[in-house]
UniProtKB/TrEMBL annotation:
Gene3D superfamilies: 3.30.30.40, Glutaconate Coenzyme A-transferase (3.40.1080.10). InterPro entries: CoA_trans_fam_I (IPR004165), NagB/RpiA_transferase-like (IPR037171). Pfam families: CoA_trans (PF01144). Its EC number is 2.8.3.12. GO terms for molecular function: glutaconate CoA-transferase activity. This is Glutaconate CoA-transferase subunit A. Keywords: Transferase. It comes from the Bacteria. The keyword Cell inner membrane does not apply.
Length: 260
């Protein structure tokens, strides 16, 4: 059964107030075509869970976000995402900040349908002070105190991969999966945009079986979106557009929509 959808159809299945996970990392392989669809929609009051980049910045600038949950929001070669920084300085969005390890454990807990996972990450740091809702647990084996990282549960996840078939099997061809498989497992529904939809038999012509990151059982919809991660990178199909990113750093966020 085909799961091919348009950007507009995906956005129509989302609702205001949802918690939405966004895959990729910083300014790498972000589902920017899907983010553009949300920007054009009436959706609002969203909680965004992300290794954040321009996805978070754009949604904050457009007034779509109530809370961000992230370990960072960066453009990689530009350390701090400008629109997110402005939103935080103006106090228009709430922010739950974990370190990268804690964030990963939150994704893992949600992917495995656990309420939390224990970790040493965060102990002895200000993470516990700025997140007073966090709790600790004691190991029943060693009595060691550990941070209980809550599951990062999501109503929907949006990810961008290099290739997919019409049934939702999706493949990455770049250097890193960026935890997109955890987003897909953790969310109630996952929507995949990709550079190209190919026949199932052709997926392994481009990469080994280990590159088949996401199974069709995790996917509710597939959007063929060539250049759908631009201006972030989607290696090996294209690198990050550094010149456009520099302009984005200083420009009105609406220019991104004008160029899509």
């Amino acid at each position: 059964m085909t799961k091919i959808m348009t950007v507009e159809r995906v956005v129509a299945e989302l609702e205001s107030g949802m918690t939405i996970g966004v895959g990729g990392w910083g300014s790498r392989r972000k589902p920017m075509a899907l983010i553009g669809g949300i920007l054009r929609s009436p959706l609002q009051d969203l909680t965004i869970i992300s290794y954040g980049g321009a996805d978070v910045g754009l949604l904050c600038a457009a007034g779509k976000v109530r809370r961000v949950v992230a370990p960072f929001v960066t453009l990689d070669s530009i350390p701090l995402e400008p629109h997110f920084r402005r939103a935080r300085q103006e106090g228009t969005v709430a922010f739950t900040e974990y370190d990268e390890g804690m964030f990963m454990f939150g994704l893992l807990a949600a992917a495995h349908r656990l309420p939390f996972l224990p970790t040493r990450a965060g102990l002895g740091s200000d993470v516990m002070r700025v997140n007073p809702e966090l709790r600790t647990v004691r190991s029943p084996y060693t009595e060691e105190e550990l941070v209980a990282v809550p599951a990062l549960e999501m109503d929907a996840a949006l990810i961008h991969l290099n290739r997919a078939d019409a049934r939702g099997n999706a493949q990455y061809l770049g250097p890193d999966p960026y935890f997109d498989d955890l987003y897909a497992k953790a969310a109630k529904k996952t929507y995949v945009s990709c550079e190209r939809v190919v026949d199932t038999a052709d997926l392994l012509k481009a990469g080994p079986v280990q590159s088949l990151l996401v199974s069709r059982s995790m996917v509710a919809g597939v959007v063929e979106a060539p250049g759908g991660a631009w201006f972030t990178s989607c290696e090996p199909d294209y690198d990050r557009d550094e010149e456009r990113q520099r302009r984005y750093n200083k420009a009105d966020w609406r220019e991104f929509l004008d160029e899509q």
